[in-house]
Sequence to fold (112 residues):
Amino acid sequence: QVQLVESGGGLVQPGGSLRLSCAASGFTFSSYSMSWDRQAPGKERGLVAFSSGTGEITYYADSVKGRFTISRDNAKNTVYLQMNSLKPEETAVYYCGGNRHWGQGTQVTVSS
Fold:
């Protein structure tokens, strides 16, 4: 069965960095686009970043352009989200998605 397992969340100070990972299994990873969403408390869930199956095409929400980078290692069936210059308002649960499935999410808290 399809499984997506996120990791790498945690507490970071404003301006800090985190790298999220999402390990996928149960499907041909390289054939599917992957994305990262986030949902902050009391707010709607929204797309943060997207990667095509090969990683050649990426998309970012305007709010994270230039600070976040989505990448993937198809040999490891893993997609990453490198997050730099984090802001307190980016405190949220971050979800990895692909092949019409979503992971359980990983909490990112940006606070001093």
